Amino acid sequence: xxxxxxxxxxxxxxEYVKNSKxxxxxxxxxxxxxxAAMSGLVLLLVVGGGIxxxxxxxxxxxxTETEMPTTPVEEDLVIIENAPVxxxxxxxxxxxxxxxxxxxxxxxxxxxxKTLEEKRMTEWFNAGSTPENAKKWMGAExxxxxxxxIDKIASExxxxxxxxxxxxxxxxxxxxxxxxxxxxxxxxxxxKMYYMTSFPDVNPDDKEPYxxxxxxxxxxxxxxLANGTILETNGKIIITTLQRxxxxxxxxxxxxxDNAGVTGEDNHPVTSYTVTGKTIKVSNVSY
Length: 287
Known about the structure:
A hairpin with a 2-residue loop joins strand 5 (270-276) and strand 6 (279-286). By secondary structure, the chain is of the alpha+beta class. It has 6 helices and 6 strands. The protein has one domain (30-81, 89-286).
């Protein structure tokens, strides 16, 4: 059972003394420190959203829809004139080809599941969680700009992973639509918490930026014969797995809240894989 998280003090009153020249930047600017401090408020709600998404993602036998929480409006945000611009190198996105799974793994269910359901899902959860993006988020002008930045990063990666891992007509399969929507929700919450916990100089409780992943503990192909041979049906295979999400919530403010972060519940997805050209795509997921 997830408990309601306590609210942190709301920072309302700050004074700003305008200087004729912009001081040399040493560490974080006042604006960056304030934004990071204010992020504690948003972090509370994001953690709640992450728990909700996790509950839905892990629930068996049939998951239900979950609503993403709305983000509160920050008040009295201090705008510092002539604040230094945060300059970071542009991020290099992976290619669809680099994320695809080779068709040869259709005859090796264990390796197929480890690659797609464990490695690729973990990569997707954390895609965009980089120090460079955290700095860009920190340097955003206001709450709306920060949310728009997160939406942009999440959407860019979501499109890549969906195209690489799922059949082209996935939108015509309701169970796939629900599954993908839930992974997208987890992804967005994960990178948001990563950005908020990436500045230990401002928040000492954030010893490590937040990360989340998946581990697969059991693999059960439906069409494995008694002698261990995998029987393919027109390039398709169905596999049930026992898997569990994990995170490092104990290394940041996420873990200082009662029952925050990933609950560690097992889930048992039944995944259908289909060979498409030289790759394998997910064609269905059910619980």
